[in-house]
Amino acid sequence: MFTTTGSRGLYKAPLSKGLLLVLNGLTVMLTLLPQYQELFVYNLQAVTHQHQVWRLLCGRLVCLDVKDSFCSSLLIYNFRIFERRFGTRKFASFLLGTWCLSALMDFLLAQAFQFLFDYEVEELPAGLLAPVFSLFVPFYLSIPRMPVTQVLGHIHITNKSLVYIVGLQLLTSSPFMWLLALSGLISGGLYHSNVLRLQKLLFIPSWVSRIGRCILEPLFSSSQPSSETPLGMGATLDIQRQQKMDLLDQQLLLAQYNEARRNTRQQPQPGLLQWTRLFPSLRHRGQNRPPMQPRPQAQTQPSTQPPLLDNSPVAEEQVGVHMCVPVYLYTSAASHHECSISSLSGILMKYSQVMQLLSLSCLVFFFGPQVARLVEMGFSRTDALEALRASNNDINMATNFLLQH
């Protein structure tokens, strides 16, 4: 819905979180205690004629209108991307510089409006509104516009359209809100372009930044979201997408490496290389073969001669000739089949050993320097080869895999 700003939430945006909590909390308290709202009215006449300079501080921080507070909170939440890109100190310096410049611009624009239209501006909407409008300057200049959809075939909806709609809603909330918006845009343009070296004059000192980092940042810091994949924090959407693709590739390689190690633990085999994992067709070679049917025994033809029951030599000779011929033939076929199987298994074992030696020599020749470096670091040769194979011979990725496991 809003512009892509990396991780959701207020992670790495403690200043934005503090502004949202403190300013909205004060707005709710003033809504419940209306007798104190007079102290936070942004009255220009009281500042110029009655010299109530403190109204520049109170009247330009807390919103008295709940609608203005809600719209400005949405914009601050979306503009937290600048705190992540610039850093908290530079983001706070931008808000401080535009806040001071917009205070001067408010009086100049009020005087110009009185001179042109003969109308004196007494009050302006209260709240941190001008610095919020000033953030539209870097938002327009540095955030790329990505088309999302079209309405009626001509109106293009981009990733920045909703932010401009919220800003337009805040602009039309009161009659003189346009004066604060113009003051904020002018201040943001001057500070962003560093006119008159304003960034060197209006900034947060380093000692103030250190105090805030020690005292306030632990109160408003947010933990990293654990329910989502961390996205890129690049300066543009293209860089963020590239970082996300690199992260997905790294996760894929890590998953492949974990799967390879899991298979190695579950199916230990002798030798350095796991040939059944590299060539799964050899492992399942005999599973799809149809079951062997037992060889049918040779049926003897029944003799037409009557059985000889006597113990004559002729009877013994006839029975011996009649029974020994089929048994001899069956025994010869079985022994020949066993010899063929044993010879084939011996050939396959020798072929597997030769291929293991050849592959081992090729891997040692290909991964030799990398394996040597990993072995010097304390890893075993087997783990080093597995990691290099899973990481496509990237020694940095392989080292990360071995250190993480």
UniProtKB/TrEMBL annotation:
<feature type="compositionally biased region" description="Low complexity">
    <location>
        <begin position="295"/>
        <end position="307"/>
    </location>
</feature>
<feature type="transmembrane region" description="Helical">
    <location>
        <begin position="91"/>
        <end position="112"/>
    </location>
</feature>
<keyword id="KW-1133">Transmembrane helix</keyword>
<keyword id="KW-0472">Membrane</keyword>
<protein>
    <submittedName>
        <fullName>UBA domain containing 2</fullName>
    </submittedName>
</protein>
<feature type="transmembrane region" description="Helical">
    <location>
        <begin position="124"/>
        <end position="141"/>
    </location>
</feature>
<feature type="region of interest" description="Disordered">
    <location>
        <begin position="284"/>
        <end position="311"/>
    </location>
</feature>
<feature type="transmembrane region" description="Helical">
    <location>
        <begin position="162"/>
        <end position="191"/>
    </location>
</feature>
<dbReference type="InterPro" id="IPR041928">
    <property type="entry name" value="UBA_UBAC2"/>
</dbReference>
<feature type="transmembrane region" description="Helical">
    <location>
        <begin position="15"/>
        <end position="33"/>
    </location>
</feature>
<feature type="domain" description="UBA">
    <location>
        <begin position="371"/>
        <end position="405"/>
    </location>
</feature>
<keyword id="KW-0812">Transmembrane</keyword>
<dbReference type="InterPro" id="IPR015940">
    <property type="entry name" value="UBA"/>
</dbReference>
<dbReference type="GO" id="GO:0016020">
    <property type="term" value="C:membrane"/>
</dbReference>
<dbReference type="GO" id="GO:0004252">
    <property type="term" value="F:serine-type endopeptidase activity"/>
</dbReference>
<dbReference type="Pfam" id="PF00627">
    <property type="entry name" value="UBA"/>
</dbReference>
<dbReference type="InterPro" id="IPR009060">
    <property type="entry name" value="UBA-like_sf"/>
</dbReference>
<dbReference type="InterPro" id="IPR035952">
    <property type="entry name" value="Rhomboid-like_sf"/>
</dbReference>
